[in-house]
Amino acid sequence: MLNATQVKAVFARLVRDAISARGYQRNVTVKSQGPAVTLKIINRNGREYSVDLTLAIKDKSWPDDAEEWSRRRRNGWPTQSLVQEICRDGCHLVAKQPKGGNVPEHEKGFLWRYSFSAAEKNLFLRGGHGEASSCRKQVLRILKALKDDLNLEPLKSYHLKTMLFYECEENPHPSQWSSICLSDRFLGLLRRLENCLLQSKCPHYFIQNLNLFERFNRQKCSELAKRVQKVISQPEQVLINLIQ
Length: 244
Description:
Elements: H1 4-21, E1 28-33, E2 36-42, E3 48-54, E4 56-59, H2 67-71, H3 80-89, E5 91-94, H4 105-108, E6 113-115, H5 117-126, H6 136-149, H7 157-170, H8 182-199, H9 218-233, H10 235-243
Antiparallel strand pairs: 1-2, 2-3, 4-5, 5-6
Helix pairs in contact: 3-5, 6-7, 6-8, 7-8, 8-9
């Protein structure tokens, strides 16, 4: 059985060896965090950049846990042909141990996590809203900026992207994502975020019975929901402040 912890340790060592062989130790530091090996890079001007490298093993089959996604009833987004193509392409496995749970400590090192990064990229690039006038990526950028501006920890960008995919299913026509609809889509996502926080529940986009907020503190979720509610009461002003 392939040990995920050991595989990741070997990958991190190979990255460190490659950096050392090229003499970059003074400009690059390596840190192993989650499923990724993170490089902190300082350029000649003293600016710092962060790059995540993640070892992913290709699984050519579509997971049984995500079977519902392939059969989900939709109103046109994504198209059935794209759904079938994504399922045929399978997914990836990354080395990340679960937090808590009922898994014995000595078995955690052998657990792998599904990664749907390739499927998510396909949805963004070929999901039917890729026209130049689409505001989808802009809405996501604004939400990420809002998350940082309001300090909405422990929310992560992945949670926002998940909600965006659900919003795309609910608003499947490209005209609903034209630039003139930016404020409507922004407000719709804020309301979805508020609802998820109030329920302490954000279903994974591909595996709906997996709650991404499962380990969130309910009181913290309630506090974040109140911050989002304030934004909902004056979305235009918030948009102006974030876009400027």
